[in-house]
Amino acid sequence: MVRRLLLHGRAEVRLTALKALALVAPAGDADAIDAASDLTQDRDVGVRLGALRALTELAVRGNVCALTAARMQLGHDLPEVRLAALHALVQLSLQNDERAVCAVTQLLEDNEDSVRQAAVGAICQVSLKDDELAVLAICAHLTNHRVEVRQAATEALALVSTRGNSSALAALGALLCDSDLGVRQRVRDLHARLSIKDTGCMPESACISARTLPSTDADLDSWSIGDETDEEDESELFVGRWDGGIGNRPRIDNPYAPPVCESTESLRDLHQLETDSMKV
């Protein structure tokens, strides 16, 4: 009875029959899947959308008939049909299915921004991290003449690539000088992230800073800025000495001031003499 109504002349009747079929037919029923697949090409858009939704409830992952019907609707004129077909394809595909990966990445060139963004999110659901097929399929769209396509491809590549992926880095390297500022920024950020190697060590700049700071009390009196062996170096005009001041930073002395004391004890004596003279 239900399957006979799928052929009714009125679209609303066919749509109601589809909903009923999804409820009563057992999962994986070949006849029900065939009937729903046929209606994905119905002349009424609402029936097409209903058929795609019914396929996700009737078919199991990897069903060839359902996957073929969903892939055929990815090229429909209406973006809502393409989105429904993409959703069905993601729900029905086995992970890392070559045909599904190629079909989804092709939507990175879709004219509708909503479809492109949906394709970006779907890629990581149908492929594995660092899968060579997915990476190469995405990289093929990085050279597209449309800026929005290159941006979508860069976002997709960021989802499926991890550090050190040579194929992704090679493709991104060619876009570091892209004509579009937004693309260049995305590419540079992603290239830098994929190039980082986690060594577990302190950055070299931090190591240099740590080596230049005084580590003992003896260093406080002798620490100086610049190379004191170079007599022609103009930096000798500003000799830094450690005075235990605020922030533990060296003080830059006036080159024409009286000679400074070379030890903290001498500095205390000088301070005491100045205090006594003020009392007098």
From TrEMBL:
Domain of life from the UniProt record: Eukaryota
Protein's name in the database: Condensin complex subunit 1
